[in-house]
Specification:
Belongs to the small heat shock protein (HSP20) family. The chain is mostly beta strands and about 160 residues long. It is built from one helix and eight strands; from the N terminus they run E-H-E-E-E-E-E-E-E.
Length: about 160
């Protein structure tokens, strides 16, 4: 959670990470407030899934994004790269169909849409991004370009 909001009304997952971009949501925190207790359960369920959490780590070879998306199939998840080096991860979990004779005792699993966006750094190889989905975990790997070490040329001193 960010302590300092960005100038454009968005929020950063980490104030120290200039590449983290979350889509601004005017209702952020609303469903955790006392007012939310009066909302229908379907609205609370949709909101719970809308805030999918994603880990981003950097290794010497790549940037790796991991998202826990239990119960989703790879066809229900979309990974895009937009202009401006923006990685977008989105998807939707549909609500289970209710039958007339069903009697629900508890509904805790969330449903709804989610959308997360991240600005990739300059060293990202945009044409080599790969995504895999295994056991409900989406992994997006963005390879990094090798750092070009400055060439040092010795200058002979005359005299």
């Amino acid at each position: 959670m960010s302590l300092i909001p960005s100038l454009l009304g968005g929020r950063r997952t980490n104030v120290f990470d200039p590449f983290s971009l979350d889509v601004w949501d005017p209702f952020d925190g609303f469903f955790n407030s006392a007012l939310a207790l009066n909302l229908p359960s379907s609205a609370r369920e949709t909101w719970a899934f809308a805030n999918a959490r994603i880990d981003w780590k950097e290794t010497p070879e790549a940037h790796v994004f991991k998202a826990d998306l239990p119960g989703l199939k790879k066809e229900e998840v979309k990974v895009d790269v937009e202009e401006g080096r923006i990685l977008q991860i989105s998807g939707e979990r549909s609500k289970e169909q209710e039958e007339k004779n069903d009697k629900w005792h508890r509904v805790e699993r969330s449903s709804g849409k989610f959308l997360r966006r991240f600005r990739l750094p300059e060293n990202a190889k945009m044409d080599q991004i790969k995504a895999t989905m295994e056991n409900g975990v989406l992994t997006v790997t963005v390879p990094k370009e090798e750092e070009k070490k400055p060439e040092v040329k010795a200058i002979e001193i005359s005299g």
